[in-house]
Write a structure and sequence with these properties.
With about 160 residues, the protein is mainly alpha-helical. The chain has one domain. Helix content is about 95%, strand content about 0%. It contains two helices and no strands. Helix 1 packs antiparallel against helix 2. The radius of gyration is 62 Å and the shape is rod-shaped. The chain starts with 5 loop residues before the first helix and ends with a helix.
């Protein structure tokens, strides 16, 4: 059977107390300190991650806003370019119409001048032929048949001039 002696029990209690003191002093305090440091590190990392996430969300929102602004500016630029293109096309078309109308007017004037020259030349020719015919008629006395031939030649010459 087991016998308990007070001296042994007291010695064991002292040894256990010393062991608890040594373990708490050299093992538990450092482990507790490490756990506390680790806890602080983890808390710091969580806080840092939350701050980084918030910054990332702000940057994302800012980039989206800038992207939307850039898209709107691009749309505005394209719209202004279309308007400018339409104005330029309209201007070119108007200038082409004006130039074609001017060329048509000049051509009409040139045709009118040439017609007037042709009519004046034809009048001169007709006048000259009339004078020739009259002089021939005065020079020779023609009968009806001869006069008819002479008038036919006259009209034939006038017809060639036209």
């Amino acid at each position: 059977m087991i016998t308990f002696t007070w001296g042994t029990m007291l010695a064991q209690l002292v040894i256990i107390a010393v062991l608890i003191y040594i373990v708490s002093r050299y093992a538990v305090k450092p482990v507790t300190g490490m756990i506390k440091k680790r806890e602080e590190y983890i808390t710091e990392q969580i806080t840092s991650a939350e701050n980084s996430r918030k910054e990332a969300e702000q940057m994302l929102a800012q980039q989206k806003a800038e992207l939307d602004k850039a898209r709107q500016e691009a749309k505005d630029l394209i719209e202004r370019a279309k308007i400018q293109k339409d104005k330029e096309a309209e201007k070119i078309i108007m200038e082409a119409k004006e130039q074609s109308e001017r060329m048509i007017q000049e051509a009409k004037l040139e045709i009118q001048r040439e017609r007037e020259k042709a009519v004046a030349a034809l009048r001169n020719e007709v006048g000259a032929l009339t004078v020739q015919l009259a002089s021939k008629l005065l020079e020779e006395k023609l009968d009806e048949k001869g006069q008819s031939k002479l008038v036919d030649r006259y009209f034939e010459q006038v017809g060639r001039l036209q």
